[in-house]
Write a structure and sequence with these properties.
By secondary structure, the protein is of the alpha+beta class. The protein has one domain. 36% of the residues lie in helices and 22% in strands. The chain has a 5-stranded mixed beta sheet with strand order 1-5-6-7-3. Strands 2-4-8-9-12 form a 5-stranded antiparallel beta sheet. Helix 3 crosses helix 9. The chain is globular, with a radius of gyration of 20 Å. The relative contact order is 0.20. The C terminus is likely disordered.
């Protein structure tokens, strides 16, 4: 047991967890420091996503225009233009956001768009499809039972949770294991609630950066990216956040659809798919639009 080796471990973990909760109103730098301290002490449940799995990413474009190249629908290549915190990104930090379900990706993008991008009767949204070139090790926050049931990867999550329980039993006393789970559930609630302001993203952003910057090499503290529940789709899909380096090495762009979306009626009014893909990553929407009922 870890407490046999480190007698003060429980007290250290208590202090780190308390420090994180106190830091929420003290600015991002304090939150990040407290989160990194906590991540050094607690394990992270993870799942393996198989090669060939498909992910979906949505982006809004101005109505007169269409995206024409892979670089336009991937992560932002100009991080200096990113002004706000997101669920996983700091200002001036590019993060690749995607989802396990195309509808979840669409609604997350529409509902988190900056003011002005979703005004008017129609919004032009491009949903791209990305395929894993190789398996990925993904961290995930421990979801509530109902959320687990809704996920398309619920079986993988449950197996991961079983292994995590075994790890805790083998390495921790009951009181340490209970505190580890309490800390992870606290983090889970941060991802499962709506952020009312940029401050509401500080904990989730700090956690993503703490586990993906490869500062820690242990099995349960280093991952390629993070899975978290899609609040906007009522947990019918999972969101994924990757650093750009993972996208460049492990993902490939395979398909794309452009649609007009009615933000008031919450429905797709028309859509078209690409019939041309260039070897340089370019694409064109040349198939005629077709009307959608929903």
């Amino acid at each position: 047991m870890i407490e046999d080796i480190l007698p003060g471990f429980y007290d250290e973990l208590c202090a780190a967890f308390s420090d994180l909760r106190r830091s929420e109103r003290l600015g991002y730098s304090r939150v990040l420091a407290a989160t990194e301290q906590l991540v050094e002490l607690i394990p992270l449940p993870y799942v393996e996503i198989s090669k060939g799995a498909r992910l979906y990413r949505a982006r809004i474009s101005a109505l007169p225009q269409s995206f024409r190249h892979e670089r336009d629908i991937s992560y932002n290549p100009h991080p200096e233009l990113i002004k706000r915190f997101g669920r996983a990104n700091e200002p001036k930090q590019s993060v690749f956001y995607a989802g396990t379900d195309p509808a979840a990706a669409l609604f997350e993008t529409i509902d988190h768009a900056p003011p002005g991008e979703t005004e008017g009767p129609s919004v032009r949204v491009t949903v791209s499809v990305w395929r894993l070139r190789a398996p990925l090790k993904m961290g995930w926050v421990p979801f509530a039972e109902g959320v687990l049931d809704a996920s398309i990867w619920s079986d993988a999550y449950r197996e991961s949770a079983r292994k995590f329980e075994e790890y805790c039993r083998s390495n921790y006393t009951d009181r340490v294991a209970s505190l580890v789970k309490e800390a992870l559930y606290y983090l889970s609630t941060q991802y499962a609630q709506e952020a009312k302001s940029e401050d509401g993203y500080h904990v989730t952003c700090a956690y993503f950066n703490s586990i993906t910057r490869a500062r820690f090499n242990a099995e349960y503290t280093s991952v390629d990216g993070l899975l978290y529940p899609s609040v906007k789709s009522r947990y019918q899909g999972d969101n994924i956040a990757f650093p750009p380096t993972v996208v460049d090495r492990r993902l490939e762009f395979v398909d794309v659809m452009e649609m007009l979306f009615d933000p008031r009626g919450r429905k797709i009014t028309s859509a078209k798919v690409s019939d041309y893909f260039g070897t340089d990553g370019s694409f064109l929407f040349i198939r005629p639009e077709s009307d959608f009922d929903s």
